[in-house]
Amino acid sequence: MTDYVSTRWYRAPEVLLGCENYKTSIDMWAIGCIFAELLTRKPFLPGTDAENQLKRIVEMIGSPDQDTIDTCGGRDVQILKGEKVDENGETNLFRDKFGDIDETAKELLKKMLVFNPNKRIPISEALSHEFFEELHYEPDEPTTTYVSPFDFDFEKYDLSIEEIKNEIYQEILLYHSAKAQKKYVENRKKHPNGVLHLRYSLIERQSPKFKQADAKDVIKEMLR
Prior knowledge:
Layout: H1 13-16, H2 25-40, H3 50-61, H4 66-71, H5 92-98, H6 103-112, H7 123-127, H8 161-173, H9 178-190, H10 196-204, H11 215-223
Helix pairs in contact: 2-6
């Protein structure tokens, strides 16, 4: 991710620390930052760059322990150290900023803004929190399964322009070809994590003249 984007203010600490295996808990962090702004009607963590953003986070919620640092990528940088919290888990800055806020709102906010992503409150628990008691209606808050990695297989590879074009072509076929739809269903069952590795292996077995421009023929072969 680039540092030069406005969403830095809502970026979870594990992302700022370079963790590549982040999860949906980064969204809960962002929601927590927005929640804080709704409560105070002011920008919450307006960092000027990645380092300043981390500094503001630590000043607001306290320094992480070593286990949390390891969970967030292992970068034991000096900027993460030195900020203590009281018996309520609050820094002086947090207490000053949210001292007059409703206690149930503050409790929820603290659960959203946990440095360790594995200890951050999940969305289902946040929705059932006391703060949302008058709004919470479980039948209207459905959950679903994660999108299959099969459909995002392309993110694992550094695809050329031609290969990206072919991926788009293959996607279009699903809306116009019963044969393509059938093959898609079969491939999802056989290869739940994707089929691009099969396509690359087919390409590698071709002659040196068989380059990326011929990938469309591979797609046709896989659709047979």
